[in-house]
Amino acid sequence: MEKQLTAIVTGGNAGLGYATAKKLCDNGIITYVNGRNGEKTKNACEELGENARPFILDLNNLKEIPAAIENIAKEAGSVDILVNNAGINMKKELLEVTDEEFQSILHTNVTSVFVMTREVSKYMKKQNSGSIINISSMAAQYGIPKVIAYSASKTAVEGMTRAMAVDLAQFGIRVNCIAPGFIKTNMSSKALDSEPERKQKVLSRTPMGKLGEPSDVADAVYYFATSESKFTTGTILPIDGGNSIGF
């Protein structure tokens, strides 16, 4: 009998993180669902069923991450999969973004991803196996207006993915990255429905002519999380209906 795998999904109580946690839970993987909001995270775990475990922590509190990961590793016996999905965005004209705002986005989207990866990798190294999946964005692939800090952070995540993959391969740990395009979530639907022109632009440059589903991203995470992708590391996979190559 194969051992039961354990995963951690950051920002797992809503949106793409929730869809990812659902895919993992539905496939028999014990999944620690991370969120800042205790009630929201516990409710998500109830919906996700018996394989979900709430992991309540604001990842901006970097100093608390090592002990939290140690607790999960002790309780679960191993950590096999880490999905670095938590992230924040801010729309603002470049000339108006303050130093504090810029640093805040980088702190959440880059530094906490690094700290989570470093701490989880210590346990993956002991078992000589593991898969880490970072979530990037189309903002790392093109110039999108009014998201300077977010674009910088997601470009950093893609660079870190390659560096992590090279550093960690010797320990049997694979690191890959997914760059979602325009996916139907509550957040994106609100944004696009309020700007019909932008929605038309998005769809017209997406060869497949539609928005993606959260499950499309979850399916790609599952591929990277399992042995199906055992000879793949350091890659960035766009899940975008061809948006990044559409002209």
TrEMBL record:
Gene Ontology terms, MF aspect: oxidoreductase activity, acting on the CH-OH group of donors, NAD or NADP as acceptor
InterPro entries xref list: NAD(P)-bd_dom_sf (IPR036291), Sc_DH/Rdtase_CS (IPR020904), SDR_fam (IPR002347)
Classification via CDD domains: SDR_c
This protein's record includes keyword Oxidoreductase: yes
UniProt-listed PROSITE patterns: ADH_SHORT (PS00061)
Keyword set, alphabetical order: Oxidoreductase
Claim: Oxidoreductase is one of the keywords in the record: yes
Similarity section: Belongs to the short-chain dehydrogenases/reductases (SDR) family.
Name the record gives this protein: SDR family oxidoreductase
Species, as recorded: Christiangramia oceanisediminis
Lineage: Bacteria, Pseudomonadati, Bacteroidota, Flavobacteriia, Flavobacteriales
